[in-house]
Design brief:
The chain has 572 residues and is of the alpha+beta class. It contains 16 helices and 14 strands. It has a 6-stranded antiparallel β-sheet. A 4-stranded antiparallel β-sheet has the order 1-10-5-8. It has a 4-stranded antiparallel β-sheet with strand order 12-13-11-14, sandwiched between helices.
């Protein structure tokens, strides 16, 4: 049983378990929030839908029509819609407000031919976009049984082919209806924005030092864009008193920027591809998207053509980006068969959810029909998608870190002395070659040699000699390691390379080394350590040659070694 449990909880399965747990947790939280906010419907006033209208669209007339089931040819700039109905007898509502949908139209509302509301006329006269959303207007006190007339003067081309319901509710509950009916996209869109902003802020400080996290920054900015699009598309920004034309601009600009972020992120995967066709398609998409984004924004800014007239083409192009990106992700996956099933399932879900929302928008705009009564689908897919990509990044970073650690370990082994764990002869030789190549004029080389090693090896054995070598290496490192390079050249020979040539500073370091050596001998009863040394600076030779400086330091070391032996001989 324990063996089975260990097998189940291996690293590969833990990733799948974690992903399933995270997805289940998110679904549970959304369900609970949906349930809690949905129950609030019982605590707010009723919504009275004005269901029967006489509608004329240009020269076409519809009698007793229901707005949500009325479909017509897509209207364009200059088209005129007039709708009439009779308001009910006074409703049991304290402050009645009428909820009028607006889709790039100049809107006017009348009670018995007396205008009580107008929106968008000045902006339209100035050739500026009017915007999308809803206007909530307080009804005049004497509205009962009067004829309500609402007119729409269309200001853009190919805007809509159906009408949304107009309804009445208590003013204090009007925005609560907006939140509750769009609670899923509100929660998901807000999550995407908050998540993206927090991650982006944290990463901005990191990326100033390294570009390793640029991919996560791109994901966080993509999250912000799609979150803004979600809450704008579902008219949620209105609860923050944002103007309709600003909401429409946020909606469309965020969807213009999002593909560029996806393409920038995609470049990380394109580099891994050996397929020229994929790379060529990617280059075409990047150039086309850049030209399209710059062109649309420029035309809108100079007021030649508004974004809303050109955005359908961009929606179609964005769908192509998502399909291509999903394919590239699938081809670039490094997971094994078991993990790849989860990875591909998440990509497919992301693909279907985003394409559904984009296609549903286009379909509804030109046909007036809704595919399914679903909201916030793309946001769920994007959250899933970002979670999978973060897992993918974690997988790549972990793999790269392991490879880097293995590489560093191999390098360390290649340049580290096995016995003393300081730099070996190869490292010191290459370091001196670099000094020579750099033509450095400020350096000093100290040559050191441990005395009496042969006697200790012959008397006590090589294991004792190894202990002496390690102690000598430790003392030399203590004295010089923070100032320069310390290494073992082989046997009992050591070297120190310092990036200075000031003899006063070097003599100070030598005195410090001698003090460390004397202190070690005072505290050791069993083994006296004696080290001969000699140094030479780059100024001590006529031609700045590192090898010559080292040989001079070696000669001076042997002179010091002879003087130590003479003293020992005299003492004996």
């Amino acid at each position: 049983m324990i063996k089975k449990l260990k097998k189940l909880l291996n690293k590969k399965n833990l990733k799948i378990i974690w992903f399933v747990y995270a997805a289940f947790s998110l679904a549970l939280v959304l369900y609970l929030l949906n349930y809690v906010t949905g129950n609030k419907l019982d605590s707010i006033s009723d919504k009275y839908i004005l269901s029967s209208w006489d509608v004329s669209i240009n020269d076409t007339y519809y009698q007793n029509a229901k707005l949500d089931s009325l479909h017509f040819q897509t209207v364009s700039d200059g088209d005129y819609i007039e709708m009439k109905t009779y308001l009910p007898t006074e409703l049991d509502i304290d402050s009645p407000a009428i909820y009028i949908p607006i889709h790039q139209c100049v809107v006017r509302a009348y009670l018995d031919d007396e205008e009580f509301f107008e929106y968008g006329a000045k902006r339209y006269a100035d050739n500026r976009p009017v915007g999308n959303g809803y206007q909530i207007i307080t009804l005049p006190d004497n509205y009962s049984d009067k004829e309500l007339k609402v007119t729409f003067e269309v200001t853009e081309n190919n805007i809509f082919s159906t009408l949304d319901n107009i309804w009445i509710s208590d003013w204090k509950d009007a925005y609560r209806f907006v939140i509750i009916e769009n609670r899923i996209p509100f929660l998901l869109g807000s999550f995407l924005i908050v998540f993206g902003i927090i991650v982006a802020i944290l990463l901005i400080f990191v990326i100033t030092n390294t570009s390793s996290y640029m991919d996560i920054l791109l994901l966080s900015l993509f999250s912000v864009c799609m979150g803004l699009w979600t809450i704008s598309y579902n008219n949620i920004l209105e609860i923050f008193s944002v103007q309709l034309h600003t909401i429409a601009l946020i909606e469309n600009v965020s969807l213009l920027i999002a593909p560029l972020l996806i393409l920038a992120y995609m470049s990380l995967y394109i580099k891994q591809q050996n397929n020229k066709v994929i790379k060529n398609i990617y280059n075409i998409l990047v150039i086309s998207q850049l030209l399209m984004t710059i062109g649309i924004i420029t035309l809108h800014a100079v007021n030649i053509a508004h974004i809303y007239e050109m955005i359908t083409m961009h929606y179609i192009f964005f769908i192509l980006h998502i399909i291509f990106f999903s394919y590239v992700l699938h081809k670039s996956s490094k997971y094994d068969k078991k993990n790849k099933i989860v990875y591909n399932a998440a990509i497919i879900f992301f693909l279907i959810s985003v394409v559904y929302d984009l296609f549903a928008y286009i379909f509804h705009r030109y046909t007036g029909y809704r595919l399914l009564d679903l909201t916030g689908v793309s946001a769920i897919g994007i959250i899933t998608f970002i979670s999978v990509l973060i897992l993918d990044l974690y997988h790549d970073v972990t793999l790269k870190k392991m490879e880097q650690q293995e590489k560093e370990l191999l390098i360390k082994r290649a340049y580290t002395d096995d016995l003393t764990q300081i730099n070996n002869r190869r490292f010191c030789s290459e370091y001196m070659d670099k000094l020579q190549s750099a033509k450095s004029e400020k350096y000093t080389i100290i040559s050191l040699d441990v005395n009496n090693l042969k006697q200790i090896n012959d008397t006590y054995g090589h294991s004792k000699g190894d202990i002496l070598i390690k102690k000598a290496a430790n003392l030399i490192s203590r004295a010089f390691n923070q100032t320069g390079i310390v290494g073992r050249m082989g046997g009992d020979e050591f070297i120190v390379i310092l990036p200075i040539n000031d003899k006063h500073k070097i003599d100070t370091l030598i005195i410090s080394f001698k003090n460390i050596l004397d202190e070690a001998n005072l505290n050791t009863d069993d083994m006296h350590i004696s080290i001969a040394y000699g140094y030479a600076t780059s100024n001590d030779v006529e031609e700045n040659n590192v090898e010559t400086v080292y040989k001079l330091a070696d000669i001076r070391m042997y002179e010091h070694k002879k003087s130590i032996k003479k003293k020992m001989y005299k003492v004996s």
